[in-house]
Design a protein that fits this description.
Blueprint: H1 19-31, H2 41-54, H3 69-79, E1 102-124, E2 127-130, E3 148-159, H4 178-181, H5 184-199, H6 214-221, E4 253-257, E5 270-278, H7 292-296, E6 312-320, H8 337-354, H9 359-370, E7 375-377, E8 380-382, E9 387-390, H10 394-411, E10 415-419, H11 422-427, E11 433-435, E12 440-442, E13 452-457, H12 468-483, E14 485-489, E15 494-498, E16 501-506, E17 518-521, H13 535-549, H14 557-573, H15 579-595, H16 603-626, E18 629-631, E19 638-640, H17 652-662, H18 672-681, H19 688-698, H20 708-716, H21 722-736, H22 747-756, H23 763-773, H24 783-790
Helix pairs in contact: 8-9, 8-13, 15-16, 18-19, 19-20, 22-23
């Protein structure tokens, strides 16, 4: 029933320098009586609810909406900058924080448990009351009574961020309940001081009509609603809320979300939730079967997260966190150009020292640490730069790998490592899996937050046999490396979830399980440094990485033309280069620019990209020659060199054996699909466009297949004249044209030709293939662009 509001406008008051006292002043100004938002948040919720009812609002309109309570907390936490005063909930502080107080929990959404109904509001006599942000649904009226309002909330199972390093835990975690730092006498003194403060003229407010209001009476009658409790009634330090042997790194939390769109919260996102803690270790693990509200309305999917083991947090405000939010605030100031260069130089010098003075590996390591997925185009994660350090034995891993791992843990907030052995692959649970018996998504090793770093140590891998679990785990790692996706197992179906994980692979040879964007042989010239790095230096490097990692990037038109010309020239000089190589170079250019704090690619940075690639390829050639291996020309795989002659493929017997391996169905012909399948099966990397390019360039009779002579010509390199090559190129272009004489290849014509060649591709895949070589961006391939692709 509408009536005169007891809440009057008051003139601004002078604020104390005590932030806790300020919180009381602010809420008194906004809702009337003074309540501590930290110690008694539910009191403020009830007061704002009463205020809305007094103003004539209908309780049925509050479902999914805020009546002013959230605005009150937002003003206190952010406008008044009091967020740091809210204690963080974890395995250590759960022993001391009092239930029904304001806390914050930082964690990753590990599982989404659906929605539940609860009694949001009910009429107690002539007075409306609310149960929002509470576990217990008090309701003295009938279930179907018009004087009861059923509302809905979402349930999230949240866990500490996997791999969260100790330095990244907020310093505010030491903030705990008052009972930790105040003796009983001190609390009594504090109470007297607070009461005296209320009587001070600066805090005097008119609350006419409110002293006799239902909420005021209820607050006076219910001692649990106020922070000013008799010491003997305070439960903050009593044993009934203790959880023995709780690991702060594994304490889950059931977060209940109110009034937020579903699109705001996604699986694996990292959030900071601020809300009301409800936790009691003496509550039964299962609900009473006679609980009419639980069984009638709340299909409690949280029954396997018992309230006596897992705390509940009724979220008032939440905000999504980025990697940079786990750094100290002082590190988030935008760095100056000179400080960026200094930090880059110092970090690169230390990386070089850690890696035994291998400067090339150090440069690639820096780019790797700066990489992130900044866009997704069809099935491509743009921006990733996984790194495979090869020539690392077990001994080298102990000497260098361990030091490198420690440094990475000290630089990045979320890091994990896995030992890639046959036993591990055969037994580990890498992908999350749904358990329908308990209705929970069981976590997997690869359920990681955005911005995580994962080290895969393959140096311990020995000969063995993978079982079905091992094969599946190997496939999952491969998909994570190539696509930045992880398949979640929901038993009846599998769902791909996007990831953004930096992958570092340590191996003796090239990893055939986890493909990498960059493969660099490790060449140390000295023992890695063991010198400790001062904390302030580490903090500067963390701030540097976080700041430049998020910089935008662009390429000016003049620079873009130069890059395109370089890519065309490189393709003509080395036909083995494909779209993956070009994409990697552009990613490296972006990261090199970012490492200097620049937002656009310069000529100097592009020259650095080409020089790093030259040094890397020289190392690979040296390793191949040193081990007696020859590289197949365009397939990025290798076969043992049994002869020292340069013209290895002139030996017909050897080439026939290779041809027979590629000819999977034994029909005497090699299709593009067979070519790609064979290359992939031996650990090589060959895209469909590269396979098609290889077939088309040597397919003399135009049937889209390679006979033995075609294959021999492909391996040896064509000796045809320039005119013959140009004619062959025109014939190949004609087979892909939309129609003869159209002068272009469209996604539809490419899809049609690929189907004839035994490779079924979607129209989006064909668009992506064309986009790689579409220099003018018109969505089709001209003859000139086709020639670039073929060369």
């Amino acid at each position: 029933m509408a009536g005169k509001s007891p809440y009057h406008h008051h003139q601004p008051v002078s604020l104390s320098t005590d932030p806790k006292l300020n919180s009381k002043i602010q809420i008194r100004k906004m809702v009337g009586p003074m309540y501590d938002l930290l110690a008694n948040p539910l009191g403020a919720v009830r007061l704002t609810f009463d205020k809305s009812i007094w103003s004539g609002s209908d309780p049925s309109s509050f479902d999914g909406k805020d009546w002013g309570a959230v605005d009150l907390f937002r003003h206190f936490l952010f406008d008044q900058a009091q967020l740091s005063q809210v204690p963080i909930l974890n395995g250590a502080t759960i022993n001391w924080i009092k239930p029904n107080t304001l806390v914050r929990f930082r964690g990753m959404i590990q599982d989404m448990l659906g929605n539940e109904f609860y009694v949001g509001a009910y009429k107690d006599g002539s007075v409306w009351r609310t149960n929002k942000f509470m576990d217990i649904s008090e309701c003295p009226v009938e279930i179907n009574s018009p004087e009861m309002r059923l509302w809905e909330r979402r349930l999230l199972c949240c866990v500490p961020v996997p791999g969260l390093n100790s330095w990244a835990k907020s310093t505010s975690e030491v903030a705990v309940n008052r009972c930790m730092d105040l003796t009983s006498d001190q609390r009594d003194k504090r109470r007297r001081m607070d009461i005296e403060a209320i009587d001070h003229n600066d805090f005097s407010v008119s609350v006419d009509g409110f002293e006799d209001s239902p909420s005021a009476k209820r607050m006076r009658e219910d001692p649990s609603s106020s922070q000013y409790q008799d010491p003997k009634n305070e439960g903050a330090c009593s044993s009934h809320i203790m959880v023995p042997d709780v690991d702060r790194d594994s304490l889950p939390c059931l977060v209940k979300i109110y009034d937020s769109p579903e699109s705001e919260l996604k699986l694996n996102d990292v959030f900071e939730f601020v809300g009301v803690l409800t936790f009691d270790s003496e509550l039964p693990a299962e609900k009473d079967d006679n609980d009419e509200f639980s069984n009638g309305f709340c299909d409690d999917v949280s029954v396997n997260l018992p309230p006596n083991k897992v705390p509940r947090l009724h979220c008032v405000i939440h905000r999504k966190l980025a990697v940079s939010d786990f750094l100290q605030n002082s590190l988030l100031v935008e760095p100056k150009p000179h400080s960026v260069k200094e930090a880059r130089k110092a970090l690169l010098t230390h990386l070089t020292s850690i890696l035994g003075n291998d400067g090339v590996a150090a440069h690639f390591m820096l780019l790797h640490l700066l990489s992130r997925v900044h866009a997704r185009a069809d099935n491509v994660a743009v921006g990733k730069l996984s790194l495979n350090l090869t020539c690392i034995s077990k001994e080298t891993a102990c000497a260098f790998g361990a030091k490198l791992g420690i440094l990475i843990k000290n630089l990045l907030p979320f890091t994990k490592s896995i030992p890639l052995t046959v036993e591990y692959l055969n037994t580990a649970s890498l992908a999350p899996k749904k358990d329908y018996q308990i209705n929970r998504l069981m976590p997997g090793v690869l359920q990681l937050a955005e911005g995580s770093h994962l080290i895969v140590d393959e140096t311990r891998l020995e000969t063995g046999t993978l079982n079905s679990v091992g094969v599946e785990n190997a496939r999952l790692l491969k998909a994570l490396a190539e696509l930045q996706k992880v398949e979640y197992d929901f038993k009846y179906y599998k769902m791909e979830m996007a990831a953004d994980v930096q992958l570092l692979i340590l191996s003796e040879g090239k990893s055939n399980i986890v493909p990498a964007d960059i493969i660099i042989p490790f060449e140390p010239s000295s023992v890695g440094s063991s010198e400790a790095v001062p904390v302030e230096v580490l903090e500067a490097w963390r701030g540097y990485l976080a700041a430049v990692r998020s910089l935008p990037h662009s390429i000016e038109s003049d620079m873009q033309k130069m890059v395109e010309n370089d890519l065309v020239t490189a393709r003509q000089a080395d036909r083995s280069l494909g779209s993956q190589d070009f994409s990697r170079w552009l990613t490296m250019g972006r990261l090199i620019s970012a490492s200097f704090g620049e937002t656009s690619l310069s000529l100097e940075h592009w020259q650095m990209v080409k020089e790093l690639e030259r040094l890397r390829r020289d190392r690979l050639k040296h390793i191949i020659n040193e081990k007696g291996w020859k590289s197949l020309d365009i397939y990025n795989i290798s076969v043992p060199a049994t002869t020292k002659t340069n013209n290895y493929y002139s030996t017909g017997d050897h080439l026939q054996m290779v041809f027979d391996c590629f000819d999977e169905d034994g029909d005497g012909k090699i299709s593009a699909a067979e070519l790609r399948s064979c290359i992939t099966s031996v650990g090589g990397q060959l895209s469909i466009e590269e396979a098609e390019a290889a077939v088309s360039s040597s397919d003399v009779d135009g049937d889209g297949l390679l006979g033995f002579q075609d294959f021999q010509s492909l391996m040896a390199g064509s000796s045809a004249s320039e005119e013959e090559k140009a004619e062959e190129l025109k014939q190949a272009f004609g087979r892909y044209e939309t129609e003869p004489g159209s002068g272009c290849i469209t996604p539809n014509s490419l899809k049609r030709m690929l189907s004839r060649l035994g490779e079924s591709r979607s129209i989006n895949d064909c668009k992506a293939m064309i986009r790689t070589f579409d220099l003018n961006g018109d969505g089709v391939l001209s003859f000139r662009e086709f020639a670039v692709m073929m060369h």
